[in-house]
Amino acid sequence: MTSPALTAAPTLQTERLVLRGPSLVEFDAFAAFHADETRCLGFGPVYSRADSWRWWACNIGHWHIHGYGYFTIEDRASGTPAGICGIWNPEGWPEPEVGWVVFEGFEGRGIAYEAALAARGWAYDTLGLPALTSNIKPGNTRSQALARRLGATLERVYDNPMMGEEELWRHPAPAEAAR
């Protein structure tokens, strides 16, 4: 069953993935992710389903305000939502960030890397953003390894207004970034 688009997000395609705007189809997978304490802590606190709904609505509003936000990552072969990835810059953020989340059952397959490359390339090439970062909780070794693989370097630790202490990883400038 398909659900109508909730934003004017473009559709990006990679070899294995479709990155598209959020719809209600993947909300259940997102709510399950955010209810799982071991999986969500690098992205935010454990959320009730109602709190996940509010974050989901916030992402839709973010698209309308900024013209970018988190895409849904869809596995091309199955059409199954595999996670979210995109550009995030709500009030209080130091600057636009490339962020990623992979849902249960999709880890360890390079999906976050493939999606982040596509989202970052779109942000640089289409949106014309001059710089991007990734905000990572200290100790989140998987996201730190992915940031390094993307060519990002640890710049500083700072106090994120929503997440507390985080590391700010600087991505390569558009001319130097892999796409």
Please sum up the structure shown.
This is Acetyltransferase. This protein is α+β, with helices and mostly antiparallel strands and 179 residues long. It contains five helices and eight strands, in the order ββαααβββαβαββ.
What topology does this entry show?
Blueprint: E1 12-13, E2 17-20, H1 27-35, H2 37-40, H3 49-66, E3 70-75, E4 81-88, E5 97-102, H4 111-125, E6 133-136, H5 141-149, E7 153-160, E8 164-170
Antiparallel strand pairs: 1-2, 2-3, 3-4, 4-5, 6-8, 7-8
Helix pairs in contact: 1-3
Protein name: Acetyltransferase
Organism: Roseivivax isoporae LMG 25204
Keywords: Transferase
Structural class: alpha+beta
Q: Which sequence of SSEs, written as H and E, runs from N to C?
A: EEHHHEEEHEHEE
Radius of gyration, CA atoms, in whole angstroms: 15 Å
Q: What's the rounded overall pLDDT mean?
A: 93
Q: What characteristic shape results from the CA principal axes?
A: globular
CATH class of the domain at 12-128: Alpha Beta
The helix content is 25-40%
Look at the structure and name the CATH superfamily of the domain at 12-128. Gcn5-related N-acetyltransferase (GNAT)
